[in-house]
C-alpha cells in the first residue's frame, strides 16, 4: 500500500446539526460543528461524556445511531455530501474507504466468527481483494501490529485472545481495506495502562506508515497528545477550541480546556501517621482453586488514605472483599484497632460492620432505582444508629449538606441525578453508618474529569472533618497522586511495593512499578516516542 | 477429551437420571389412582376370592417396589408388559403385548408430528427472520397478529374451522384422518394434511416470535453496529451476524414445540379421529389399563428428555466459547 498523505482536503463537515430522540422528544446533540481533515492527518476530538464526540465521529462516516437524525449541514467526503446519500449508497464507503475502531473490542467482535474472517470481511465484500490475498495481507498487518503468532492468531475466536490483542486486531480490521479515513472511538479506554502503550504505539505507526487520515476520539488529553496532529475540544455538542497539538497543550485558550487538566492539579501533601486503624495480615485468598491473593500485608494508618494501585486482575478489589468480610481468606486475618475481625461477614457484629463501609465504582447499579434518595440514605442511619421519624430526617438532611447537596434532593430517584450526584449519594450512604474506615473502589473511574475533581475534593474534606481513613482502590495514577498518603502497588495477587507516596513515586522502583508508572501517558506529545525509544522497541 | 464431548456425555447422563426419576413418578402416580382394576373388570358382584385370584394372575398382589423393578427392567429391554384389556370376567385372555399396542400408534403420532414439524419449523424460522429484518413494518405486524390469532384459539376450534373450509365447503382434504398400517405413504400424507395444518397453526407463533425476539435482541449489540459500519447489508447482518448467535434460544423453543407435537395433540387426534398415542393413552386411563398408561407416559418422558437434550447440544455446538475453549 502506498502512503496516501498529501495536502488535499479529505473530509469537510459544515455546520452539522444532529438530534437524538429520548424522553419523548428530540434533543440537540451536535449544534453546528465545522470540521476539516486533510489526507493523512490525525485529528483528536476530545470532550467529556455527553459532549457529542462519538456522535460527531460516526457522523464523519455519514452514520447516525438508531434514534438520531441529521437536521442540518453537510458532510463532504472526498467531494460527496454524505447527508444526501441513502444507506445503501453509504455502505459502499463503509468498510471500504472509511472504517471504524470501537471502544470495546471484546463486544465489537462477533463471537461466532474467526478473527481473520472478521478482519477481512469488508475488504472481500467490497471486492478490493480476493480471499487469500486479503488473508495474507491481514497476517502482514497482524505482524506489523506486533501481535504474537501473526500467522495463526487469525484462526482464533474473539474470546480466545486478550483485550489488548483484540484492540490491535480491530485496528488491523480497520486497515485491511486500506481506507482513506479511520475513526478511532476511545480505542484504548477499556485497556490497562501497560497494554495501552503497546496498542497506542501500534496504531500510531500503522496510521503513519499508510498515511491514513484519522479521527481520534477520547476523553484523555494525554492520550490524544500522542496520537493527533491537531486537537478539537468539544462541549455540549459545540466546538470549544481547536489548535495544533503542541500549541493546544502549551497554551489552551479557553477556561474549559484548562479545566480538563484539573484532576492532575489536585495535590495533597502526604502525612505520616503512627496509629494503625486497620491491618491486613498475611492474607491468602482463593476463588475456587484460583489463588487470587498471595500473602498480602497492608496497614492503614488512622485518618490517612492508602491507595491500592494495580491493573485489572491484580486482586485489588479482592482485598476490599476480604476486608469487608465478603470473601473469607484461606490464611491470615484482618485486624481493626488491633482486634481481629471475624473472617466472614456473618460472624461480625453490627458494631464491626458499621465501622467499615464501602463506596463502589458504578454508582448507577449500587443504588436501588426504585428507592428515593431518602430511602437510600436513611436505611443505614436507622439500621446502625436506630434513628426514627424526625430525627432520621434531620440526619439525612445533615448528610446531604455534608456532600454539598440540599434538601430538595431528598425525594428524587437515582434516575433523576447526574453521575456525580449519584456518587455523592453513595458517599452519603456510607457516611450514614458513621464509619471509621471507608473503602473506595474505583469511585471516580466512571466519571468525567471535572466531576472527578469535585468528588476527590469532597472526599478529602470529609476525611479532615470526620477523621476518616480511606482505602482507595484505583488504576489511575493521577488519582493516586491527588489523594493518597501511602501507596500499595499490586500485581497478580501480590503486593509489589508499599510505602509513602513520595517514596513510591521516586526512583529506584521495583520492575513492575517502573513499568506501571512509565506507562501512564503524559501531556508531552513526545512522551510515547521517548518511552518507546527508552524501551528499545 | 474435547469439552463438548464431555458436556454432551454429562447431559446424556443427566437425561438418563431424569428418566429414572420420571419412571418412579409415573409408577407411583398410577399406584395412587383410586379403584382397583380387578374389581372394575369383574364387577361389584364378584366374590372377594375371585378378585384376589384375578389380581394374583396379573401380579397385582406383589409389593409395589417389586412390580416397579419388574416393569423398569422390562422397559429397558423393550418389554413394557402385557396389556390388561382383553381380559374379562369369563377368564378368556385375548390380551396383547403393550409394545404391540403402542408401536403402530406411536408410528402414526410420529408421522403426524414430523409432517407438522416439517411445515412449521422452516415456516417459523423464515417468518421469524423476515419479521426481524422488516421489524415494525406492516408485514411484521400482520404476521405477528395472524400467528397470535391462531395460537389464541383452542386447537379444536382451529381444527373445525379448517374442516369447514377445506373439507366441507371445498372438498380438498378429508375431514377424517383415519389411517391404518396398510395405508400407503401418499395417501397417509393426504389424509393427515388437515391435522398437520392445525398443529402448524398452533405452534408457529411461539417459534416464530422467539426467532424474531432472539435476533432483534442481538441487533443492539456493538458487533452489529460494527458490522453495519463495515458495510454489511441488513440481510447479511441478520443472517451472518445475528442468527449464528441466536440458535440456542431458538433451538430450545423448537424442542419444546416438537415435544408438544408428540405428547400434547390428543385433542387434535380426537377431532380428526386419528389413531395416535394420545387417544390410546386416554382410552387406557378410562379402562384402567395400567401397563399401557405407564408405557405411554414413559414414551412421552423419553420424547421430552431427548428433544431437550438435542436443544442443549445445539446450544453448545453453536457457542464458540464452548466449542473452541481457550
Notes on the structure:
The complex is a heterodimer of chains A (537) and B (326). Chain A folds into 2 domains: 251 residues, 3-Layer(aba) Sandwich (Rossmann fold), CATH 3.40.50.300; 231 residues, P-loop containing nucleotide triphosphate hydrolases (Rossmann fold, 3-Layer(aba) Sandwich). In chain A, 45% of the residues are buried. Chain A is an alpha/beta fold and 537 residues long. The mean pLDDT of chain A is 89. In chain A, the strands form 4 sheets. A 6-stranded mixed β-sheet of chain A has the order 6-7-8-3-9-10, sandwiched between helices. A 6-stranded mixed β-sheet of chain A has the order 16-17-18-13-19-20, with helices on both faces. A 4-stranded antiparallel β-sheet of chain A has the order 2-1-4-5, covered by helices on one side. In chain A, 36% of the residues lie in helices and 26% in strands. The mean pLDDT of chain B is 87. By secondary structure, chain B is mostly helical. Chain B has a domain of 187 residues: MetI-like (MetI-like fold, Orthogonal Bundle), CATH 1.10.3720. The chains are: A alpha/beta (537), B mainly alpha (326).
Q: What is the typical, i.e. mean, pLDDT of chain B? A: 87
Overall helicity of chain B: over 70%
Q: Give the percentage of residues in beta strands of chain A.
A: 25-35%
- The low-confidence parts of chain A are none
Features:
heterodimer; A: 537 residues; alpha/beta; Rossmann fold; 21 helices; 20 strands; 36% helix; 26% strand; B: 326 residues; mainly alpha; MetI-like fold; globular
Helices and strands, with pairings:
The complex is a heterodimer of chains A (537) and B (326).
Chain A (H helix, E strand, L loop, with lengths): L8 E14 L2 E14 L3 E5 L6 H7 L8 E10 L2 E2 L5 H4 L7 E4 L3 H4 L6 H11 L5 H14 L18 H13 L5 E5 L7 H18 L2 E6 L2 H7 L2 E6 L2 E7 H6 L4 H5 L2 H4 L10 E12 L2 E12 L3 E5 L6 H9 L6 E6 L2 E2 L9 H6 E4 L13 H13 L3 H14 L16 H14 L4 E5 L7 H18 L2 E6 L2 H7 L2 E6 L2 E7 H4 L6 H8 L8 H8 L3
Parallel strand pairs in A: 3-8, 3-9, 6-7, 7-8, 13-18, 13-19, 16-17, 17-18
Antiparallel strand pairs in A: 1-2, 1-4, 4-5, 9-10, 11-12, 11-14, 14-15, 19-20
Helix pairs in contact in A: 4-5, 4-6, 6-7, 14-15, 14-16, 15-16, 16-17
Chain B lengths: L2 H29 L5 H6 L5 H11 L5 H13 L21 H36 L4 H15 L2 H15 L15 H7 L1 H27 L2 H8 L4 H9 L4 H17 L2 H6 L5 H10 L3 H28 L2 H4 L3
